Amino acid sequence: MYAFDIERPTTIADAVAALKSDEAQPLSGGQTLIPTLKSRLAAPSKLVSLSSISEMVGLSDEGGVLRIGGATKHDTVAKEAGGSHPGLAGLAGKIGDPAVRHRGTIGGSIANNDPAACYPAAALAHGATIVTDRREIAADDFFTGMFDTALEEGEIVTAVKFPRPEASNYQKFEQPASRFAMVGVFVAKFADGVRVAVTGASEDGVFRWTEGEEALSANFSPDALDGLSVSAEGMITDLHGSADYRAHLVKVMTKRAVAAAR
Question: Using one digit for the tens of pLDDT, what is the confidence trace for 211-227?
């Protein structure tokens, strides 16, 4: 890695101020950034660590909405979200391995928006609200493409707010070496309908399967998806699987998620 300075602010205001300097970059869990630095694919002059900002850590209930601080670790979500959001807790408990879950953060994952990351699917399926130091952004407006979001320069994800679904579940077909999702599907059932979000499959990143949502909103059963198919257009093809294979997996994983939803 190249040499760099590091700051550890203890408040969001101090972090925002530190990020105003040239070439400063936020550091959350570091699960993507540190390997990038080691590969010399990035060379910021300063890293601003968010791990010491207490107001960005932890879970709280706000009128039936689960608020998770942006610097909250995956392991914490897995252990503490199960009472109100079992689908979300299950997702967090399957991210990477124990080392990743004890370092990676929900805010870092959502801000990075890796096309195979799990949390973007959870946020989109819940219709979550992403809270930053400047504003609140609906999940439907936040994820704009592969590794791309609505975040502006220096903007920090301080929390994510998840409304409580009636039932939910996440199913992931893992790439066994990385444990990223070749295809991951989060299904969330609400009183006004069902949301289905897919990660790992599309060249454009996380997306909603609207045809599946319509069928499941009318009949929340795996059988409701019989007869539907997912187009392979725009799906990822790589050494792990073809576009057609990933398209097929979207339906398979959605059926499994519906069957396991609680």
Answer: 999 999 999 999 999 99
